[in-house]
Each structure stands twice: as structure tokens, then as C-alpha cells.
């Protein structure tokens, strides 16, 4: 029955072209275009030459790191709202809830979102790779030798960190969509939370060698950065913090996702 | 044999304290399997609330509702039921065909025969159009196809012909009768269109203020208000024979007799030398029975 719900949800989602394009495809396209625009600017406007060879492996890992930006998260919010808020928006729950269990319907939405995020992250990595290749042409720079072993570890860490971080965004959107029964409120509130988190993290100084658990628990973005092993604003993180950071991200997903499911199980669908 | 739908002391209150609205009030009703059962009542009588409770969309404040013998919300029972609650709504970016594929997949139907059902509800030509541009009548037809595509044992249809043109109403009425007579599907139908209900239903229940105020077969309901209209002379003799069962209606007399009693009455009139110019049955429609029960229900 869960597989039926998942098949139906992915079938529906794939046909919601606007949500799929802006929510899952555009981040990859954006990474590609942004890389080229930046390269053109540096080469022809600033008239500078970036030193050294272009490292395509780093470009793909860097592209994954873009998922931590609140701007990038806007696109994933569009997808999350289209998945979790669509049945409230179009009042289609009354057609669907008698056909499968509510828990399956919600789990299928989480799975569809998770799958979409995974593919979108791969798209972002491909976007980073392609923009690196184009940059090599624009900047007439050589391409650095590819070290698969180093790249593999960094890429997997980046993929896991970004996927978990975007799943946190998804479960918060899901909870808000169920609570408010509108996808607009879910988008706005989640976006405000993402920006607030980015601002607070910029202000707080944390010992990078041993990030405190309460900080990891409070800021999913911090936890994601620790997993990536490449801090952006708060200094370098050590590999020691990664398991705790993963645990915290998983806890966010379980707690908020669980709350969304529990609320939906008890929700009275008086209009939808 | 279990009932199709059984409500036992069902109460549903929306809101709380001062703003509370009681949609169903210790409501009890057994809807048997087989045939077409009509649920009638004015707006706010509790029809949609009853259906939403049965489908597990909302929870009762008190009491119990069972569908095919299983508690409300039981997915196993729900998968044997089709439903159209109020005007159905669809994802606007899906076509009619895609909507049915998605919903049948959700129900776990292996061979949904989407084309057959689209044809049967008269949407074959609009199969590949997005539902965004569908009229209310087209949405009703698609909702009906969505309800039937799982080949259910029973269907709950809430105002299935609202927004349809007269030809569409006849088509859907015929389809409903076919479902009951040929496919053996129990149809539970809520409607405001009393003449339609009379034509299509076998049994009905009248609802008012969240309670059942009358139920029975359509034949029973309609025969109870049927009268024999006699255009006969001399009228005084007719009234004398009928006594309390006679009532003047312009130039005729309305006789409160059953169809079985009618031949004896005609013989008695002839025996007394009355010339019967015309004798025909009047009333006998669900509308009269409906308003009779509504008036009685509201008087309570």
C-alpha cells in the first residue's frame, strides 16, 4: 500500500511541471548559469585571470554546498509546498484519503520529496561540473588532475549533508502546510526561519573543533556545515563533530516529520 | 448480511462552546446492501457530514459509524467503497485520464480500464484535457468515474448531478440504475432533486436538523400521500359515500383510499347512481412526502 501511494505521488508530482522545474530542476540550472556568469564577469568585466587549474571535483562538491543557502532553499521550498500543500490548495484530500491510509499518503510525500531532493542535488553537482568545463574554456585555464578517492569522500559528505539539510526544510514545510492548510504560509514561515538561522549563525562564534550539541541541535544549517566539513561562516569544523551533526539533522527530520504525520492522522478534513 | 452503512447514535459537533454547531444529533440509520438508497434533506441537515464521517474524513463527537461492517476510516473497507463528496476537486494540471490513473494507482488497482470508465461517464472526448478547464458537470462525471474505477461494492454519491444539464442528469440517472441493477453495486445517494430521487432510488431517508425524521421504500413513501381524484356527479353522493375520506377539490373530490380499495369504491359509486366522468391518481410523489416529513420534523 505504501508503494501504491508512492507510485501515485510521484506520478502526480512529475506532471506538476512548474513545481518540478522550479523546485528540483532549476537549482542545477542555476548553478551552471551562475558559474558561467561569474566566469564571464571575472574574465571580461573585471579583466582578471583566476589563478591555478580548474578543479572539477571541487566544483561539484562546492555546487552541493550551495544547498545551504537560503536563496537556493527558496526553490526547494516551492517543491516542498507543491508536495505537502497541494491537497489542501486544491481540496483533493477527500478524493485521496479513502484510497490509502493517511500515514502512507504522508510517507509517500516525504519519500517523493526526498527522491526529488536527491535528484536535484545530483543536478546541482552536474551543473557545477559543466560550469567548470565552460569556465575552463572562458578562462583558458587547465583542468586539474582528478583525484577520485579524495573527491568521493567529499562528495558523499556533501551529498548527505545537503540532503539532510533540505529534508529538514521539507519536514518543516510539511508540518506548517498541515498546520495552516495553505502552502503560502508554509513557504513564508520556513523561508523566514532559514534566513533567521543564517543571520544568527553569522553572529554566533562557536569553537570549530568541538561544536556544542546545543548549537548543532539549534541550527540545522550549522549541523549540515559540520557534516560537509567545510564551514562557511563559523570557522572550521572537525570530522569529530560530523556524527553528532548527522544525528541532530536526523532528529530534526524525525521530530518535525513525525509531528506532521501525527497531526495529519488526527486532522479533520472538513473542507478538503 | 452486514449493512452498507450503519450509523449508531452518531453525534457530530463542529466548533466549541458558543459557536458550536451540531451537524448530527444522536443519528441512527441502517442503509442495507443492494439497490439505490437516497438520503434527502435541506442544506445543513447533515448529509455531507454523515458521508464525511463514514469515509473517515472527520471523526464523530459521539457514537459510531460503520461502512460494510467495518469501523469508519478502515482502509480495507474504504477500498471497497467509491465516493464523490460535494463537487469533486482535482489537481488542475492533470488530465482526466491522468487523474484516474493516479487515483487508481493510489487504490492499488492493477487494471483500472481508464478508457472504459471515461467512456461510460461520457468523458471520452475530454480524456486528455486538463481538468483545469472542466465545467462543474464534467467534474461530476470525472468524480463518478474516479469513484467507480476501483469496482467498489458500494458508492457514496453526494449530489452527483448538481451542475449538470438535463441530458447529463438522465445519463447519470441511468448509470446509477445500471450500477445497482446490473453491476450489483449499492448506491447511497444524497440529492436535492426529489423527482430524480423518486426515479432512481429504491429506499429513502429524510434528514432534518441532524436526525432521521422518516425512512422507507419510495413506494411506501409515495403511496402514503396518493389520492384518487374523482370528477363525478352528483358530488354530494360521492362525499356521502366517502365520509371523512372525501375532500372537495374545486369541481372534483379527492378520495383518500388505497389502490386496493379503489375498485370497490368505483362499484359503490355506480351502485348509488353516480356518474364517474374521470378518476385518476394524484399526489403520490416524493415531494409531498418530503415536505410532509419536513413539516413534521420541524414541528418537533
Provide structural commentary.
The complex is a heterodimer of chains A (272) and B (300). Chain A is 76% helix and 0% strand. By secondary structure, chain A is mainly alpha-helical. Chain A has one domain. With 300 residues, chain B is of the alpha/beta class. In chain B, helix 4 packs across helix 5. The interface between A and B is medium-sized, with 27 and 32 residues.
Biggest sheet of chain A, in brief?
none
Regions of chain B with pLDDT < 50 over 5+ consecutive residues? none
Instruction: Give the overall shape of chain B, derived from the CA principal axes.
Output: elongated
Radius of gyration of chain B (Å): 23 Å
Nutshell version of this structure?
The complex is a heterodimer of chains A (272) and B (300). Chain A is 76% helix and 0% strand.
SSE diagram, text form:
The complex is a heterodimer of chains A (272) and B (300).
Chain A: H1 2-15, H2 17-45, H3 56-65, H4 70-84, H5 86-89, H6 93-96, H7 102-138, H8 148-180, H9 183-203, H10 213-218, H11 220-228, H12 242-266
Chain B: E1 5-14, E2 21-31, E3 36-40, H1 47-54, E4 62-67, E5 70-71, H2 75-78, E6 81-84, H3 96-107, H4 114-120, H5 136-148, E7 154-158, H6 166-181, E8 186-190, H7 194-200, E9 203-208, E10 211-217, H8 218-223, E11 226-233, H9 235-242, E12 246-249, E13 252-255, H10 262-271, E14 275-283, H11 286-299
Parallel strand pairs in B: 3-8, 3-9, 6-7, 7-8
Antiparallel strand pairs in B: 1-2, 1-4, 4-5, 9-10, 11-13, 11-14, 12-13
Helix pairs in contact in B: 4-5
Amino acid at each position: 500500500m505504501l508503494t501504491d501511494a508512492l507510485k501515485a505521488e510521484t506520478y502526480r508530482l512529475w506532471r506538476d511541471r512548474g513545481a518540478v522545474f522550479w523546485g528540483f530542476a532549476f537549482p542545477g540550472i542555476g548553478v551552471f548559469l551562475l558559474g558561467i556568469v561569474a566566469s564571464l564577469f571575472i574574465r571580461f568585466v573585471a579583466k582578471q585571470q583566476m589563478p591555478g587549474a580548474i578543479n572539477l571535483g571541487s566544483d561539484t562538491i562546492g555546487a552541493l554546498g550551495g544547498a545551504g543557502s537560503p536563496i537556493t532553499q527558496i526553490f526547494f521550498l516551492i517543491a516542498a509546498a507543491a508536495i505537502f500543500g497541494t491537497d489542501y490548495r486544491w481540496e483533493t484530500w477527500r478524493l485521496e484519503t479513502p484510497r490509502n491510509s493517511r500515514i502512507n499518503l504522508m510517507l509517500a510525500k516525504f519519500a517523493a520529496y526526498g527522491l526529488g531532493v536527491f535528484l536535484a542535488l545530483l543536478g546541482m553537482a552536474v551543473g557545477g561540473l559543466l560550469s567548470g568545463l565552460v569556465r575552463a574554456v572562458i578562462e583558458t585555464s587547465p583542468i586539474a588532475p582528478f583525484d577520485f578517492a579524495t573527491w568521493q569522500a567529499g562528495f558523499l559528505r556533501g551529498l548527505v549533508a545537503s540532503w539532510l539539510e533540505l529534508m529538514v526544510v521539507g519536514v518543516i514545510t510539511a508540518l506548517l502546510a498541515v498546520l495552516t492548510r495553505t502552502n503560502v504560509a508554509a513557504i513564508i514561515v520556513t523561508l523566514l526561519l532559514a534566513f533567521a538561522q543564517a543571520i544568527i549563525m553569522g553572529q554566533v562564534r562557536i569553537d570549530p573543533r568541538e561544536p556544542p550539541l546545543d548549537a548543532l541541535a539549534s541550527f540545522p544549517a550549522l549541523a549540515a556545515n559540520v557534516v560537509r566539513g567545510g564551514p562557511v561562516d563559523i570557522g572550521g569544523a572537525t570530522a569529530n563533530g560530523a556524527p553528532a551533526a548527522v544525528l541532530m539533522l536526523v532528529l530534526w527530520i524525525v521530530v518535525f516529520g513525525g509531528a506532521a504525520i501525527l497531526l495529519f492522522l488526527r486532522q479533520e478534513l472538513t473542507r478538503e | 448480511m452486514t449493512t452498507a452503512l450503519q450509523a449508531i447514535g452518531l453525534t457530530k459537533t463542529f466548533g466549541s462552546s458558543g459557536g458550536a454547531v451540531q451537524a448530527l444529533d444522536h443519528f441512527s440509520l441502517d442503509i442495507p446492501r443492494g439497490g439505490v438508497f437516497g438520503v434527502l434533506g435541506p442544506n445543513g441537515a447533515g448529509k455531507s457530514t454523515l458521508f464525511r464521517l463514514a469515509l473517515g474524513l472527520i471523526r464523530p463527537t459521539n457514537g459510531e459509524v460503520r461502512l460494510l461492517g467495518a469501523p469508519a476510516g478502515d482502509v480495507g473497507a474504504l477500498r471497497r467503497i467509491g465516493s464523490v463528496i460535494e463537487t469533486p476537486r482535482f489537481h488542475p494540471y492533470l488530465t482526466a485520464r491522468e487523474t484516474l490513473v493516479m487515483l487508481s494507482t493510489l487504490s492499488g488497482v492493477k487494471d483500472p480500464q481508464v478508457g472504459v470508465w471515461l467512456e461510460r461517464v461520457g468523458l471520452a472526448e475530454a480524456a486528455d484535457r486538463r481538468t483545469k478547464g472542466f465545467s462543474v458537470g464534467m467534474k461530476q462525471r470525472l468524480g463518478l468515474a474516479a469513484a467507480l474505477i476501483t469496482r467498489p461494492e458500494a458508492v457514496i454519491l453526494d449530489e452527483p448531478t448538481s451542475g449538470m444539464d438535463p441530458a447529463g442528469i438522465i445519463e447519470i440517472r441511468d448509470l446509477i440504475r445500471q450500477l445497482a441493477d446490473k453491476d450489483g453495486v449499492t448506491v447511497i445517494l444524497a440529492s436535492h432533486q426529489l423527482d430524480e430521487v423518486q426515479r432512481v432510488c429504491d429506499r429513502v431517508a429524510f434528514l432534518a436538523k441532524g436526525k432521521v425524521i422518516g425512512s422507507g421504500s419510495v413506494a411506501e413513501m409515495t403511496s402514503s400521500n396518493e389520492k384518487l381524484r374523482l370528477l363525478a356527479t352528483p358530488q354530494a353522493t360521492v362525499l356521502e359515500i366517502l365520509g371523512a375520506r372525501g375532500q372537495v377539490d374545486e369541481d372534483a373530490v379527492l378520495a383518500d383510499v388505497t389502490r386496493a380499495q379503489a375498485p370497490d369504491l368505483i362499484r359503490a359509486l355506480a351502485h348509488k347512481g353516480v356518474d364517474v366522468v374521470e378518476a385518476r391518481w394524484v399526489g403520490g410523489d416524493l415531494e409531498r412526502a418530503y415536505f410532509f416529513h419536513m413539516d413534521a420534523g420541524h414541528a418537533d
